[in-house]
Design a protein that fits this description.
The complex is a heterodimer. Chain A is mainly β. Chain A is 0% helix and 49% strand. Classes of the chains: A mainly beta, B mainly beta.
């Protein structure tokens, strides 16, 4: 079936360090891929997305590239800040259930220390 | 302000006592959905609705009911809660069809504990 696998957390970094959170997916079709972020005590909000192979999504210094050949959508940021501490979810959609149905990974908690 | 509002935000209840978690959105979205979030499992879809009076099961519908009598509201009903329904619940909404960008808008969550 369709699924998303993320690296387990927590990921703990110092401020200004480089961040990578790995995400791979299994899908029978051609999904759209998303990264959502959940700050403490809040709901999820869209961070970035990519709708086809080789697309790069970017927002707030975060980037992810849709790699069809490796079925991956790794999240990267060159210099993290304390305010980036949150839980990050990789997700896919566009399969059965339409584009509105999101399938989420388990989430990766990021903690950034000064 | 565009938002999805859930109530209550926190609830402790006992096994078998019926409860309803309300969800309301002010963005005129056709699509609404309920997810539950559990450690190590991410978010799993419970039910969704494509429009008024149109609902369907998600991946984990057992023990839940929903209704969509108005476009803005999508309540989640637990007729006889059990401890395995202790979880963090999120309501989400989006446009359906041509207006859909793939982005879901989430409420702030409702933390439910069933004793």
């Amino acid at each position: 079936g369709n699924s998303v696998t993320q690296m387990e957390g927590p990921v703990t970094l110092s401020e200004e360090a480089f961040l990578t959170i790995n995400c791979t997916y299994t899908a029978t079709g051609y999904p759209s891929l998303f990264w959502y972020v959940q700050y403490p005590g809040e709901g999820l909000q869209l961070l970035l997305k990519a709708t086809k192979a080789d697309d790069k999504g970017s927002n707030k210094g975060f980037e992810a590239t849709y790699r069809k050949e490796t079925t991956s959508f790794h999240l990267e940021k060159g210099s993290v800040q304390v305010s980036d501490s949150a839980v990050y979810f990789c997700a896919l959609s566009g399969l059965s259930g339409g584009y509105n149905k999101l399938i989420f990974g388990a989430g990766t908690r990021l903690a950034v220390h000064p | 302000e565009a938002q999805v509002t859930q109530n209550p935000r926190y609830l402790i209840t006992v096994t078998g006592k019926k409860l309803t978690v309300t969800c309301s959105q002010n963005m005129n979205h056709e699509y609404m959905s309920w997810y539950r979030q559990d450690p190590g499992l991410g978010l799993r879809q419970i039910y969704y609705s494509m429009n008024v009076e149109v609902t369907d099961k998600g991946d984990v519908p057992e023990g839940y009911k929903v209704s969509r009598k108005e476009k803005r509201n999508f309540p989640l009903i637990l007729e006889s809660p059990s401890p395995n329904q202790t979880s963090l619940y999120f309501c989400a909404s989006s446009f359906w069809g041509q207006g859909n960008t793939g982005e879901l808008f989430f409420g702030e969550g409702s933390r439910l504990t069933v004793l």
